[in-house]
Design a protein that fits this description.
single chain
Length: 79
């Protein structure tokens, strides 16, 4: 499995623990979720809001700095 070997090599090159943790959480979440399960659980209005938010995210003035978000949610991250 060349993909598996390449993935392990990539992981070994990441020196930033925060980046590595973020990748782990992303991959773990993708691995545990069933395709479309979350999306299908949303109402049509909620789905539309997600799509609007996604489109708005391409404009940098709508974005919040990562450090600001992490600071704001620090109390939940410590659990």
């Amino acid at each position: 499995m060349k993909t598996r070997e390449e993935f392990h090599k990539l992981i070994d090159t990441i020196d930033d623990d925060e980046v590595l943790t973020a990748y782990y959480q992303l991959i773990n979440g993708l691995n545990e979720s069933k395709h479309g399960q979350l999306w299908n659980s949303l109402s049509k209005d909620e789905q539309e809001e997600v799509l609007v938010s996604y489109e708005e995210s391409f404009d940098e003035k709508n974005l919040i700095d990562h450090n600001v978000v992490m600071e704001k949610h620090l109390k939940w991250r410590k659990k």
